């Protein structure tokens, strides 16, 4: 049968991510890949999860193996609210929705807020998965500049003024506030305060996506933008268990004012009825028992070491000429910018031929023709010795491409 004429308009506009196609190349067995974004399985607290599974089956089998409410298991929503309150956020459990990963939170925000052609403010570069979610609803983007301190408030304000002149009210500003994917940068506290002021002045909603905030290796914690919002309820906050527990549970949370939460919950009902109840009970057990809090320092110490190995190898093997990279203080990634004439998408073919891979940065920029000379490197997953060898190989490929003085296509 020919399904072609049957597909919806949305399906017709969907396209496979070019980058995912390209990354299939990197799945060759000998390739050392910095292209992934996976937590290290060595951080998974298998024994603690196993013990929690026994407790949940002993004490909560009837409800843990049942459907849950769409908004999530009450004990987990309460535990998440309590966990966030410890970080200075004012959160009521009724504002918390347990989602099937933060990726679902992004999808639900798209469903609830984005009409075809609506404008979303984003940093340049930004998380590809958010762009994919918002693209599905026909979003357009107004991009804002960012540097080592994250998105630049003046650039956000300039965009808002420009859009207003054209009669456009953006639906929200989307940011990965701490140790961003892909850039590894954190929005400074001063910038966060300024962004909240701008949001107040322009009646703007902010979506703060924060999967990595707890994975800080050095420096002082920066308060979330949600905690800086003075009761106006203009920041929707997304957090996840993927990076502080396990990604396989597919458990995350959104925090939004109650009215918006209701809309998200109605929307979620039509998608999946509810998030996996069994894993919610396990996560609630591990969170209320303090097991996750005690486990996070172990994740941090493993990733800090890997970050140091990667930055040390970059310092040793990356060409210095026109190349800069993020000295990430946390999270999973570092981000390199090469001289303007180097196209990292094309360079990937040579890198893979030398058995090393990365993600070309271009896909993280919503606009065409920018970010050709950037790349994202993941340090959480590869073993330390592979990080050293891989970075040495990559440095060699980069030196060849820098020397080529090839003009960008
Ligand atoms: C910035 C950002 N947001 C959201 C997600 C989705 O996380 P999950 O769906 O596993 O909670 C990721 C995953 O890597 C991410 O990097």
In brief, what are we looking at here?
This protein is α/β, with parallel strands linked by helices.
Describe this structure in words.
This protein is of the alpha/beta class. It folds into two domains: 152 residues, Alpha-Beta Complex (Aspartate Aminotransferase, domain 1); 226 residues, 3-Layer(aba) Sandwich (Aspartate Aminotransferase, domain 2). Helices cover 44% and strands 13% of the residues. The protein is built from 14 helices and 15 strands. The strands form four sheets. Strands 2-10-9-8-7-3-4 form a seven-stranded mixed sheet, with helices on both faces. The chain has a four-stranded antiparallel sheet with strand order 11-12-15-14. The protein is globular and about 60 Å long. The two termini are 40 Å apart. The model has no long low-confidence stretch (mean pLDDT 95). The site of pyridoxal-5'-phosphate has 14 residues, from helix 5.
Q: What are the SSEs and their pairings?
A:
Layout lengths: L8 H5 L4 H6 L8 E2 L12 H19 L9 H12 L10 E4 L2 H12 L5 E5 L4 H9 L3 E5 L1 E2 L2 E2 L1 H13 L6 E5 L12 H14 L3 E4 L15 H4 L6 E6 L11 E4 L2 H15 L4 H12 L2 H27 L6 E2 L7 E5 L6 H10 L2 E2 L1 E2 L13 E5 L5 H21 L5
Parallel strand pairs: 1-13, 3-4, 3-7, 7-8, 8-9
Antiparallel strand pairs: 2-10, 5-6, 9-10, 11-12, 12-15, 14-15
The structure holds pyridoxal-5'-phosphate.
